[in-house]
Amino acid sequence: MKKKKIEMPHTFVIIFGVVVLAALLTVFIPLGRFDTKEISYMQDGVEKTREVIDPDSFSYVLDEDGNKVTNVAPLFGTEDTGRQGLLNYVFEGLTTGDKYGSAVGIVAFILVVGGAFGIVIKTGAVDAGIMRMIALTKGKDILLIPLLCIVFSLGGAVFGMGEEAIPFVLIVVPMFIALGYDAVVGIMCTLVATQIGFGTSWQNPFSLAIAQGISGIPVMSGAWFRIPLWIIFTGALIVFTIAYAKKIKKDPTLSVAYETDESYRKEFQQTTKDMPFTIGHKLVLLTLAACMIWIVYGVVVKGYYIPEIASQFFIMGMVAGIIGVVFHLNDMSINDIASSFANGAQDMTSAALCVGMAQGIIIVLGGTSATDGTVLNTILYTISNALQGFPSVVSAWFMYVFQSIFNFFVVSGSGQAALTMPIMAPLADLVGVSRQTAVLAFQLGDAFTNMIVPTSGVLLGALAAARLPWGKWAKFQIKFQTVLFVMSTITMVIAVVVNLT
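^ thats the sequence. predicted structure below, dont judge the formating
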């Protein structure tokens, strides 16, 4: 009798399981809340203010008899109950937030970017460019790995690149598969590289600067420690990815993405290696390159975020479509621009739904508001108390572990900083470690688990772009997470020993 192969659960199934677990937590964990206070800090010579948690203000929500209150998530919530239920998680998750983030903004971003790249792919410029790249590299294609890892890691370190990596996945993944590697290599060189940079950044304005400002230490300080850290972790990424890539090129069947990459391989079988690389193809790729430069300028100089970046990609898609029509690429017509945009967005629908479903986990838990009675506030307070009473090195390491786990629920870097750092910074004083070390624990914990948690909208978007299920990715990524965990543990010990300031 043939042994039945164990099938990895679909991402939707995994998220639903987590939603059920979240609902169970509401049965046992009482609600807690904090008061907030306004703090000010300097960033780039400008004084900024921010509302943060008052760490000494925690209190349980009590009923009329003085008993702690739980708010069990109902099976189905309505406006009458004032609480969303377990089975509301999909719709309510999708409609959470605004255009600047959370679910709505990221869902819209994923669909618009998918549509724009649907037009680019329709022109055939990507396939032609990949074939040209294969011809030019001629056995030196392995050098693309360190080059891309460094570029994307710098993007994460300098301006907090994250969502911006998703469009690159649509191009880099097919390129590596055509070169004889797999989708995993493409994701490692793009999305994972940005998170390595994010976690070791010395100037990221979206998380590091906020965490340091809240902690009352100079913004952008500690660069003397973080720049070498960035070099070491980026180097580890390169070594790990090259070793994996060589193994896959030698035997492609060893890849966790071997089956899902089949669709790419079939497409490349229909693409002749001697296909022409025309002026029209070059103009489309130049349009893509110009868009990337425009985005970097917009983010660094103008402070562009999700709405502006999505619009930039939309413009790129329209220009690429017009070029395709003018130069008769793939016999494109005006209607093909519209249909390819729709097809591209359709390909990203699964990722968009995952983003909303993942946000539903927080809704079932009661939200992330510090001033409302929620389960997360109680968890945060309880764990912060548990960290006291240990040697400083152990406490610092527990801070890192806690931030890694908490990131499962709050994947936003700025959001996690706002919730945890007002508590972790004064806690660092109590346990005998520097506040800079507490910020480092937040950095490492926040960034590195973004590469594997199924609640990360950016990760799910990138995996959808690569046509790789989360379960298969997690099977591979757990190995790299082990490497990062060991390296981060060593980093926390060193930070305590040198009294990082």
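The longest helix spans residues 223-250.
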